[in-house]
Design brief:
The chain is an all-alpha fold. It has a domain at about 70-245. It contains 10 helices and 2 strands; from the N terminus they run αααααααβαβαα. A two-stranded antiparallel sheet has the order 1-2. The radius of gyration is 26 Å and the shape is elongated. It is a multi-pass membrane protein.
Length: about 250
């Protein structure tokens, strides 16, 4: 019985840690999103709040079960129900608004690519995060390398430069950030097709990653929901089994 309450405290710690990781991470695709999108930061704070609340609920549930306190078990059940409903609602919103979210993400990344400047120290963390994404996913741009043709520096260099993190050559990846030069530029006619870069856009790479890990993601979400349902069933069962004291049987002084 108490193992389930302990699981909730562990689950809360995991959710809390995930929210903190989103805010603290500086070297992944999450960093690109959380630095550019206020909604993701808000989501991270919500995760931290939910994680802390889940840990607290696990403690209160255990306390209520040990001391047979109905109000604590009732509070535990109510909070779990609210958390579960919120999670289902959030999942439905993400599912039905996925095209809008995809469009917003596209706008964020393309804006980053257009203003990418390795000499701009103010945007260094954000740009390093995007370079990391392109290297790890082996992709270039959002929809493809052509997105980089809108970069102001590359335009001024007549397309004779390309992002090193996009390159399919190991010597360029050693640099890892900034721009590399074409070995044999074609005067006045160079395009992204002449760059030694990956052909896949990062949008396709991210979608493929989600497809490859969809089973794991759904499994984790289902596992969390099952644990929450078990906690609700257990708390309501304990609450029903706790009998109130019959004070009419207490001898009067």
């Amino acid at each position: 019985m108490y193992v389930l309450f302990l699981l909730f405290q562990i689950l809360g710690a995991v959710i809390l840690g995930f929210g903190i990781w989103i805010l603290a991470d500086k070297t992944s695709f999450i960093a690109v999103l959380q630095m550019s999108s206020p909604s993701l930061k808000t989501g991270a704070y919500i995760l931290i709040g939910v994680g802390a609340l889940t840990m607290l609920m696990g403690f209160l549930g255990c306390l209520g079960a040990v001391n047979e306190i109905r109000c604590l078990l009732g509070l535990y059940f109510t909070c779990l129900m609210i958390i579960l409903i919120t999670q289902v609602a959030a999942g439905l919103v993400i599912y039905f608004q996925k095209e809008m979210l995809k469009e917003e993400l596209s706008h964020i990344v393309k804006g980053l690519i257009e203003t990418y400047n390795p000499l701009n120290e103010d945007e260094r963390n954000l740009q390093d995060a995007w370079d990391y994404v392109q290297i790890q996913i082996t992709c270039c741009g959002w929809t493809g390398a052509k997105d980089w043709e809108d970069n102001k520096i590359i335009i001024n260099q007549s397309m004779t430069q390309y992002p090193c993190s996009c390159s399919n050559r190991s010597e360029d990846l050693e640099e890892g950030r900034g721009f590399c030069h074409l070995d044999d530029p074609v005067n006045g006619t160079s395009t992204s097709n002449d760059w030694p870069v990956h052909g896949q856009g990062c949008m396709d790479g991210v979608e493929q990653w989600l497809k490859d890990n969809l089973g794991v993601i759904l499994g984790v979400c289902t596992g969390v929901a099952v644990i929450e349902l078990l906690g609700m069933i257990l708390s309501i069962s304990l609450c029903k089994n706790i009998h109130s004291e019959d004070y009419t049987k207490v001898p009067k002084s």
